[in-house]
Amino acid sequence: MDRRSFLTKAGFAGAGAVAASTTLAAPAIAQGNQTWRMVTTWPRNFPGMGVGAQRLGDRITAASGGRLTVQVYSAGELVPPLQALDAVIDGNAEMSHGAAYYWQNKSQGLNFFTGVPFGMTSRELTGWVRYLGGQEVWDEIYDQFGVQGFLSGDTGTQAGGWFRNELTGVSDIQGLRFRTPGLGGQVWQRLGASVTNMAAGEIFQALQSGTLDAAEFVGPYNDLALGFYQIAKNYYFPSFIEPGLATELVVDKAKFQALPDDLQAIVRDVCQAEYDAVAADFAANDPRALQTLVDNHGVQVRQFPEEIMEAGAVAAKDILEELRSSGDELTKKVAESFVSALNIVRRKTEGTDSLFIQARERYFQI
């Protein structure tokens, strides 16, 4: 997909481009029906996440018979993308759709609910959140802000990023201007990169202008639409900083709890269904998009050198240990819960799933 065509069809005229005069209308409530506003961090019609956010809103509306209608606003339509959570906290929207690690300035503990370097895969993350105490500690963090988060989408293991030049070792990272968020950004920073975060719609221009030397966003399905291949040709796999990224739906907690029990259940259940739906979308379309990037656009698929992987693992472990001894009690609690759960869920992944994948690759080609 041509980037310009995608952005035109999406009606997305630059992330963060919101007129100063923009005001948010109050939610409609009539005859027991309510209309809630969902602000997102994604461009409209954005593959996977943007489409998933719209579908989530539509499914809540349909499942509730219109008793809870969700009106979805893409990045920049009502608020800048990286102010989506604040819109809910401030009462200017009832819902936001984004990624928890975008809000690490509010609590380092929020990083754990998106992606942890060398941490959980997306399937492992759901095990922690749903059955091993993850939701409870997540709730404790968001209680401070009067909101509640739910897992709402799953990209699977992401791509490692787009680089103008091939990487041969850690020395190539020194001073590299790299777009990458969360704990992963902290890892790359310790390896010598100059790290920044920016919303999806801003990355291409920053690469094109030379403000960035490299960028990672999600993977082939999204990156093809964003057109990164036009600037950088070296595409690295896999990401060691985002092994299983999750998106979140955040709701105003007081308004959510004021809903009838059945509407609360619809929101929770639709989020869980969308987590799986988005995962299937990426599973089906990432491989096809990657083939297009290679065959039609001359992209070079590469793997990170062992030196970079090893250095990244050391940095990731150091960061995790620092968070486990953090002065912030909630961050420490989340980190301890994450590590405890990881040591449980990884047994199946490494002892069963990965062994099967290795066997299938070796013995079963059809």
Q: How would you describe the overall organization of this protein?
A:
The model is unreliable at 7-23 (pLDDT under 50). The chain has twelve helices and twelve strands. The strands form two sheets. Strands 1, 2, 3, 4, 5 and 11 form a six-stranded mixed sheet that branches. A six-stranded mixed sheet has the order 8-7-9-6-10-12, covered by helices on one side. Helix 2 (49-63) links the parallel strand 2 and strand 3. The longest helix is centred in the C-terminal third of the chain and has 37 residues, at 261-297. It is globular, with a radius of gyration of 20 Å. It has two domains: 25-105 and 117-154 and 246-285, D-Maltodextrin-Binding Protein, domain 2 (3-Layer(aba) Sandwich), CATH 3.40.190.170; 161-242 and 298-328, Periplasmic binding protein-like II (D-Maltodextrin-Binding Protein, domain 2). With 366 residues, it is of the alpha/beta class.
What does this entry show, briefly?
With 366 residues, the chain is of the alpha/beta class. It is 47% helix and 16% strand.
Please, how many helices?
A: 12
Shape: globular
Radius of gyration: 20 Å
CATH class of the largest domain: Alpha Beta
Task: Bin the strand percentage.
Answer: 15-25%
Give unreliable regions as ranges: 7-23
Structural class: alpha/beta
CATH topology label of the largest domain:
D-Maltodextrin-Binding Protein, domain 2
Mean pLDDT, all residues:
92
The CATH architecture classification of the largest domain is 3-Layer(aba) Sandwich
Major beta-sheet overview? 6 strands, mixed
Domains, number: 2
Considering DSSP H and I runs of 4 or more, what fraction of the residues is helical?
40-55%
> How far from one another are the termini?
30 Å
Q: What is the strand tally?
A: 12
Report the CATH superfamily of the largest domain.
Answer: Bacterial extracellular solute-binding protein, family 7
Secondary-structure element series: HEEHEHEHHEEEHEHEHEEHHEHH
- Please state the oligomeric state of the protein chains shown: single chain
